[in-house]
Amino acid sequence: MADLDDLREGCNFGLGIQTADRSFHVKGAENLPWGMKARLSRIFNPKTGKTVMLACDHGFIMGPTSGLERIDLNIVPLIEYADCLMCTRGILRSVIPPTANKPICLRSDAGTSILTSLNDNVLIDVEDAIRMNVSAMAVMLAIGDTEHEATTVANLYKAVDKGTRYGIPVMGVTAVGKDMARDARYFGLASRIAAENGANIVKTYYCDGFEKVAAACPVPVVIAGGKKLPELEALELCYNAINEGAAGVDMGRNVFQSEAPAAMIQAVSAVVHDNMKPIQAFELFNELKSK
Ligand code: 5RP
């Protein structure tokens, strides 16, 4: 194990300085092979370099929570406004129309329900992901959770081995232990560990000092929305994240629990792709809501 005595916190993140080679629109992907780049280009819009992923995988451990009672009614009508859909294979096969023709970021680990302790992960058979023509596999990385950290690191590592073999990018979905502060230090730690273990995309949470989390992560960071906020606040969250280095959002509750989910995802998209100011995006939300 490395000597921990002189381990110093990072302090020079080169904020505002672009990474050297940005000939490809996805950070850290310049040297990847064609299949990987093609899949990443389905998720990240080549014109803006950004993505709006719609996350609806919550049921895999939580069941039919608010806004996800009926995926056919709650989520399918929103797919047209998303750049990518994040869901489980069960929902994909049973509810999502293949004709939607959207890139899928497949929840590729399985966990125990919220009724027990966090999770004991099982990884999908990569051949099943290939059968469903997914554009990325999402796998959790739980840092600071003594019971599960090793399992999730191993899972992520295996997913990257398998994904690399077949040209399927992996998104590391960061989680930090219950007792850890949800701050830049720990989200930065989890994000960097996910990328160092080979994740091509990292999903984490917005926090104070987020620009350091994004800068120190060599691959694109997308943010989860977290608990439902009033619409204007959620749009401010997106705006701040994008302007501090996020490459997009992978948002669930702040879209599907909105009073007007279709209007909300379009407003989020305007912030992410057009850098629309939150107040204008909120006006857009209200305008679309009243139609
Ligand atoms: C949890 C996930 C969820 O998809 C994620 O939390 C996004 O949803 P929300 O915006 O509702 O937080 O990956 O592991």
UniProtKB/TrEMBL annotation:
UniProt signal peptide: none
SUPFAM superfamilies named in the record: Aldolase
Gene3D superfamilies: Aldolase class I
InterPro entries according to UniProt: Aldolase_TIM, DeoC/FbaB/LacD_aldolase, DeoC/FbaB_aldolase, FbaB-like
NCBIfam families named in the record: PRK08227.1 (NF006081)
Name of the protein in question: Fructose-bisphosphate aldolase
Lineage of source species: Bacteria, Pseudomonadati, Bacteroidota, Bacteroidia, Bacteroidales
